[in-house]
Records
---
Amino acid sequence: MAYRLIIATIPQEKRRDNIDELLERYEVLSMWYGDSSDGQMILNILIRREKTEAILNLLQEHCSDVGGFRVILVPVEASIPIPEVPVRILPEEQEEEDTLILEGLVDRLGSKELVDRLSRQEIYADISDISRVSNVYIVMIILSSLVAAIGVLNNNVAVIIGAMVIAPLFGPNIALSLATVLGDMDLAINALKTNLTGISTALAISVVLGFFSEVDPTIPELFLRTNVGLGSVTLALSSGIVGALAFTRGFRTTLVGVMVAVALLPPLVTFGLLLGSGNFYPASGALLLFLVNLVCINLAGVITFITQRIHPILPEKVGKAKKMINMALIIWIFLLAVFVILIFQRRGVFDVVRL
Amino acid sequence: MFQVTLRLIEMVIPQGYQKEVLELLQKCNIIEIFDLKAGNDLILFKVLLTTEDSESTLDKLEKRFSHLNGFRILILPVQASIPRINETSNGENGLSPDEESVAAERISREELYTNVLAVSKPTKIYLLMTILSSLVASIGVLNNNVAVIIGAMVIAPLLGPNMGLSLATVLKDSDLARISIKSIVAGVGISIIISVIIGVLVTFDPSIPAIALRTDVALAGIFLAFASGIAGSIAFTTDVSSALIGVMVAVALLPPLSVFGLLLGSGHYYLATGAFLLFLVNLVCINLSGLITFYVQRIKPLKTWDAFKAYKITYLAMGIWTFILIILLVLIQIRKII
């Protein structure tokens, strides 16, 4: 699905005749429009999905102050003829108003600055969808914790991997990163709430399970998750970057791989099991691994989103985003430094080099 | 598994062709059609049909109208439709479809092409993904952490370009072939470089199960690669992306490559050749099975003359891949004797 169809209902007072010219700069593949019965203009634009953001920004700036304006983004499976790479045509003369709108955009989102990725709006819709606390979310957390605990206790890798893929802990953390770079407090609070709910539910279940079942800390899959080294940090950072990139490009399958590579749930469940059964030293290792993964995902998410140039367009949010980014970077880097020191302490400076 | 999935085709053409379009579509298996007036003297047709019928219909529309100014077809996914569509119904018009409209149990060529092209391009992101997944795979192998290795297999973007190469062959599309080969070479090169560097830096024991497993090719491995390759191609042609994940895991290209690099970097040359042979066998099997699957699914260019030439190229490519596979098998036997 490399293309998107933008369907915009534009209210009567905002319709313009030169919409073709206006859109010429935006690498539109195809454009047509019709009228609805109440005089609104229904504009259809076919465009590569990486190019949608600029048009959405333009439409938003142009029309969002009137009622009846609505943009729908529809995925397109394919298009005939297979589109050539369109040449960007710059119209020689433009109306003043156009130039104003365009210049306003160029300020914040110059054409060179546009990274080939999904639009901010689409990423936001995808991510906010998976970061809400819902009944389904809590049930999924409970079930995947059970599955993970059983997998770890039986040393069954396949079951553990199943639990990793069910695990809905990755979404809220990516949502937190997105909220940071967009300066969106509501989303951040939501994501934090979801995160805390998820983590505490999984922890409670695994501690109870650990208390009632025999836990042998030498089970390979358990031992593996109490053992944290610098390799774990590299692993978590690289997978975190891949995960955030997958969200900005809409790669669904890649995301599954990321969930498996840098799983949050199994170390957390391992921690709970060991804690419940009284194996405190190995438990601390599992906790450290979980925290390293958590911090690395968040750090990687924020950095990736920044380098992908995802930023808010409303001026009041720009300042807020800057503040939140600075704060988040300081917190995450500080925490990561603390954890690295703890890893050194646990493993000894010379042992750390071994992955 | 082949439930009725629907597609909405939107076609924009100049006004004055309504009758022709309706006449043409009478012969096709469509569920619903209506047209709307669009601005600029254009008219918009919306056609609802099943995914399996989409290719024959699209072919007819493209052959007939693609020369018109402003012509554009979009294929949109449809989640559901009311009233429910009966699997056996022959469309609303009740006419029996002509021979060309035989339903293929797959998505249309255009859709497949768009999907495959998107995963075959050697973009910056592709290269970055290759770098990161190589890191993840190497760490997973060295820690003998099966879950992490599986994660790396799924992240690794190497399956896409190989599917791209197979599709390029059956469609006689030299641009796609060039893009895919570039991606494959770049991806393989980067993975080897990264894992060799890690192999030089880190001391490890080559008897780690995760490594030992990937230094030997068995005959069963070839069947595995074949079966998974066919499953993967079918997943692409039917748009079942969850099946693709299974395929990526079953016949992973990256872990043998990483193991090869690690062993090469640490100086275990004999074991390294085993891992490299395993990688090559997997690569060849994926390409060959992709080619066979696409051929059997009758994916061919729109124009008859192109289709004829594409068949020739396909047979030639099948011959070449089989030849390489035989050479690899001989090499594997020779290696065992040494």
---
Amino acid sequence: MPFPEVKFYQVGTFAAGNRLLDPDRRSVQTRSDRANSITSGHRACQGCGEVLGARYVLDAAMRATGGNVVAVNATGCLEVFSTPYPESSWQIPWVHSLFGNAPAVASGVAAALRAKNRPDTRVVAQAGDGGTVDIGLGCLSGMFERDDDVLFVCYDNEGYMNTGVQRSGSTPPAARTANTKPVGSEPGNVFGQGKSVPLIAMAHEIPYVATATVAELHDLEYKVEKAMSMRGARYLHVLVPCPLGWGSASRDTIRVARLAKETGVFPVFEAEFGVVTAVSRIRRRVPVEQYLQLQRRFAHLFGDHPRPDVVARIQAGADRNISRFGLLAGPEDATEPSGN
Amino acid sequence: MLSQIEGSLAVARSVMRCRPEVVAAYPISPQTHIVEGLADLVRTGELSPCEYLMVESEFGAMSACIGASAAGARAYTATASQGLLFMAEALYNASGLGLPVVMTVANRAIGAPINIWNDHSDAMSQRDSGWVQLYAESNQEAVDLHIQAFRLAEQLSVPVMVCMDGFILTHAVERVEIPEQAEVDRFLPPFTPRQLLDPAHPQTIGAMVGPEAFTEVKYLMHAKQMEALDQIPAIAGEFEASFGRAAGGLVRGHRIEDADTVVVALGSVLGTIEDVVDSMRADGVRIGALGIKSFRPWPAEEVREALAGAGRVVVVEKAFAVGAGGIVGQNVRLALSGTAPVVFDVVAGLGGRAITRASLRGLFEDVLADRVVPDRLHFLDLNTELVERELDRSRRGLIGAHAERMLRDLGTAGAGPY
Amino acid sequence: MLKVRVHGRGGQGAVTAAALLSHAAFAEGRHAQAFPTFGSERTGAPVVAFCRIDDEPIRIHEPISEPDALIVQDATLLHQVNVFDGLRPEGYVLLNSSRTLDELGVAEVRTGRRPDRLLTVPATAYARRYLGQPRPNAALLGGFAALTGAVSLGSVLDAIRERFPGPVGEANAKAARDAFDDVAQHRRQLADA
């Protein structure tokens, strides 16, 4: 199996799950010697998926490298809420330059570390979907193409949240944002747009590409540690619900992320050098309604003027993901080329 | 229709009245409500026909406007600060190609350090890009300037940016008269492109020009902006006749006729300055204010004439040329060269620091009492203790990120490894 | 000119409150300017919004450092932010709380001020009663109308209904009306005392 078998299904808390696991398989976050790369005092909203993801990712990277990480951050929620002048939540070396250049800045840091003969210090770059999918894509492609030794992490909350919830290239169809309101003939974001940066990353045939969500935190840590065991360009795309932007309850962040996977809306997989090597199967498939109904950004599809036709299109998209990646059946039934 | 409305939304409605056919949108604080407002107007069909493109960056936004304009559509976008810089190459491209794009710049400071609040460093950084730059003093003027901007841009085939102070104007809910569609239609005819991508009549746009003709091309750009010095007041005059209120123009004076001291400024701070001027006038001080409405082209003659009678000129500006001095100040000195007035150059309001009546009054009184040295750049409300400490540290060779350290010095709790 | 400063926390509608107040003044034919301060905010962080009301056009654009009136939407701000900073001696204070100023530990604000201008009103309770949510901004505007007379209750209710159409507007309007009556009665009691 490409990732650890979790013996006990985690139901809402890590306490039970970790206590019963072998010590060496417990989450980084449960260890008292964890790095606390992003420590308390940041200004993230209650229930923020992004800061949860960042905490897990960076502490796992720190553990994997023995505490030898430099972080490069794009402009966005994570950067803003972690560094409210004159305070900073970062306990690791951290630089913020601009919105669209995090991959290029990270490439520069990695090059400098090579020039200074410091191979043990590793670079993790991070950005939201805005800084990755849209304005950062050119620089990201350059970093991939050069195979620079950087792990790039995209925290995808499917919109420009820090500037007030505007649509990005990652916003799903039909979702309400500040500039894709549920008025007019196509309520919310239009269908037929959007892009999958994980697939774009795979097209660059870089050593490692993976997707993850904040619902499966062991899996997230595993993928980071695996990525840090490799050299070259690596890409991790993490789905992080945003209670404010998605209109979900702050206590539902992990639940919503789990439903994104269990509906097939967000495929969770790993790929190496352009081929899918492992897929995280859907445990118990559920229809997309269960996922959509927890989020006010999809409220216009239900209620007084329901749009079952739009919901059906969303379901069709999830079905396509399931068939394409083999999320239910074995990989031999997937249409996406797999390495197995 | 007279409305109580947020500045951004008023501008969105004004732009809607101008019937743009392509709007390219990329969000950046503090312009977001403008592009969101336009998104809603397109969705409801109030603004139609209009293609609303949500682009992947500001460079994409201006590039899309260039393409749209070249294909004969009236094109519009809005940005600020970092976004304006991200499209800098495209700004020069639009002006070089003579495309009449109109853009709102919701003035915001440029980082590092990252700052989302108002100052003029963004627009000032692009003052040489070949764009016309108009500055609004109020939300009403912002609404009015957009209408004039489309007219000017298309008459001259030059792109125009309308600057309005981010947050201070964009996010203020004020009383604004939003013109009716019929009124705007009478003032602004449909766009007749001077160059067009059309299979029926193929044209090449954007060829390479070598040393044999480049100078002439640039000269003609300059000549066009010189022509704008006549067109801007003409259009403003027509606007006043049609809509019944003054807006735009090159400069506007407030009690400068017999003023010994004139304060020069751009944008929303003029309102505050006029208030101080009135209060000092009531105390018998002969002081006035000159608002620069068009910064590019630079109305040198109008500025010289307006300041002719003054002994002292105080330039209050929201940006400066690092390592050189004031920007508006430099331009004012140029206009006044060979004439009498003494010029004081004051930088204020950087990164959103409020410019208060109290501070301004104190400044003007200091100038009048000869407590301010001319020919040197002054920073209003500078925390000299803070900078002295930092300069001292630098002299002693201490390392570290200076901005972060200065802010810790300001006395609030810090976290981190230092 | 009346200068009003609204203190609240992100998500409580302080910015909307200032805007609605400006709409109410506009409806009465007056000039009004409303604007917020900006920070990298999130739900729950302290927020300040301003509103100027005058019969003349308002030209200035600076934050209000010497308010004539304060609306404090959240009593937990009292010992975190200096909400009373710059308040004019004859100024008004309307504070969202079911407790008195003494009980809240800010009795000192009364020194040198007119007692009938410093009041608390349980705006959150009124909001919960009709809206089912602790969003006190509309109710506080009703109370503000009674406290200062700067705008009429009618104008406030119209502004509320225009901003929040349908049942939400009606619920907010009811909360505003209750707060208005509460404050008006309270003032009468203080006047009779």
